[in-house]
Design goal:
With about 400 residues, the chain is an alpha/beta fold. The chain folds into two domains: about 10-50 and about 300-405, Alpha-Beta Complex (Aspartate Aminotransferase, domain 1); about 50-290, Type I PLP-dependent aspartate aminotransferase-like (Major domain) (Aspartate Aminotransferase, domain 2, 3-Layer(aba) Sandwich). It has 13 helices and 15 strands. Strands 2-9-8-7-6-3-4-5 form an eight-stranded mixed β-sheet. The chain has a three-stranded antiparallel β-sheet with strand order 11-15-14. It has a two-stranded parallel sheet with strand order 1-13. Helix 7 links the parallel strand 6 and strand 7 (about 205). The longest helix is centred in the C-terminal third of the chain and has 21 residues, at about 385-405. It starts with 19 loop residues before the first helix and ends in a 5-residue tail after the last helix. It is an enzyme of class 2 (transferase).
């Protein structure tokens, strides 16, 4: 029979966080191996539970969640998002500017589907959260990666960004706080990005899903709060701040210069209607989450579990010879660098395979985040301290063996 081929639109689409190496890990688990999964920010499996009041509210309202909701979402949770947005100093947002979704991921794809024609370009960071690159490609666009500079705390290189704007460029994606690097951008840098968007009439897509996962007293500023004459589309949700990944409850907020975007907004409305609505049980969690006690502050503050585990993971990683890392100011990840002189890696996916096979530790290779060289990888610091000591200890032994096999010495 004639083979059934996947769509050509998927040719440039990849999502290595759940790619071939994790698939190998799944097979190993089926064979009885215990895998330490440092590949994905899935908080619940590491004992980070959502606030009880969110769970209870969903239970109480479950009997009311069987019907379709408004295509953009229920009024009460959207109003809660509106108030949250006002608290972030984003002006001019009303209920109609807010879309609830099955996680921010669904809305990211929707936002690109509504915008892009074949050949349109979108500036996406390198490294990036790979869904952004995939969503641009799947929508017929061309992702153009601007460099984030590791030597400057992983901040976007504004001149590189400027040099990659062409007549086909439609938008700039800003992931802040950043996944995978844990960087948090200062206002001065955000203002430069806004100015680029202003000069070239570009949309800014702001992924802010980690805006409460902040360490050492850091403060997050929403880029959409910095101007009214640029179109912003801001994404957030319950997955990370409220440890509710599986609830698939996120939102998208359109703000700024909307008068010139009526046709685009009509496209968003059309796509929102086509999927009928976001899941209703997840919507019931939003108002309680945003208006309740913000327990994330306890986890990231002094003595908090996430803060302690970040510090431990940083110490264990940077003690490995030839491994350096910018200490994250936010989010759940580290993106360490392997000195190419000591670790001459040609294929970082193969490196991740070998690490998994020998240590039973699952990471994501840097190329999975569209990084430009095979010299980085991403880990989460979510396992408890004992498990991290064990996992990074095995990783250190693997690295030592790797150095010896490749003739590296100190």
């Amino acid at each position: 029979m004639r083979p059934i081929q996947k769509s050509n639109k998927l040719a440039e689409v990849c999502y290595e966080i759940r790619g071939p190496v994790p698939e190998k890990a799944r097979q190993m688990e089926e064979e009885g191996h215990k895998i330490t999964k440092l590949n994905i920010g899935n908080l619940a499996v590491f004992g980070f539970d959502p606030p009880d009041e969110i769970v209870q509210d969903m239970k109480i309202n479950l009997s009311n969640a069987a019907g379709y909701t408004d295509s953009k979402g229920m009024f009460a949770p959207r109003k809660a998002v509106m108030h949250y947005t006002q608290g972030k100093n984003i002006r001019g947002v009303n209920i109609d500017d807010i879309y609830l979704g099955n996680g921010a991921s669904e809305l990211i794809v929707m936002s690109m589907n509504a915008l892009l024609n074949n050949g349109d370009e979108v500036l996406v960071p390198a490294p990036d959260y790979p869904l952004w690159t995939a969503a641009v490609s799947l929508s017929g666009g061309k992702p153009v990666h601007y460099v984030c500079d590791e030597q400057q705390d992983w901040f976007p290189d504004i001149e590189d960004m400027r040099g990659k704007i062409t007549p086909n460029t439609r938008a700039i994606v800003v992931i802040n706080p950043n996944n995978p690097t844990g960087a948090l951008y200062p206002v001065e840098l955000l203002l430069q990005i806004v100015e680029l968007a202003r000069q070239h009439q570009l949309i800014i897509y702001a992924d802010e899903i980690y805006d409460k996962v902040l360490y050492d007293g850091a403060q997050h500023v929403s880029i959409a709060s910095l101007a009214d004459d640029v179109l912003f589309v801001t994404f957030n949700g319950l997955s990370k701040n409220y440890r509710a990944c599986g609830y698939r409850s996120g939102w998208m907020v359109v703000s700024g210069e909307k008068s010139h975007a009526k046709d685009y907004i009509e496209g968003l409305n059309m796509l929102a209607s086509m999927r009928l609505c976001a899941n209703a049980p997840g919507q019931f969690a939003i108002q309680t989450a945003l208006g309740g006690y913000q327990s994330i502050d306890d986890l990231v503050g002094p003595g908090g579990r996430l803060l302690k585990q970040r510090d431990l993971a940083y110490k264990l990683l940077t003690e490995i010879p030839g491994v350096t890392c910018v200490k994250p100011k936010a989010a759940l990840y580290m993106f360490p660098r392997l000195d190419p002189k000591i670790y001459p890696i040609a294929d970082d996916q193969q490196f991740a395979y070998e690490l998994l096979a020998e240590t039973k530790v699952l990471i994501v290779q840097g190329s999975g985040f569209n990084w430009i060289a095979p010299d980085h990888f991403r880990v989460v610091f979510l396992p408890n301290s004992d498990d991290m000591v064990e996992a990074f200890g095995r990783m250190a032994k693997f690295m030592e063996s790797y150095r010896k096999r490749h003739g590296a010495s100190f």
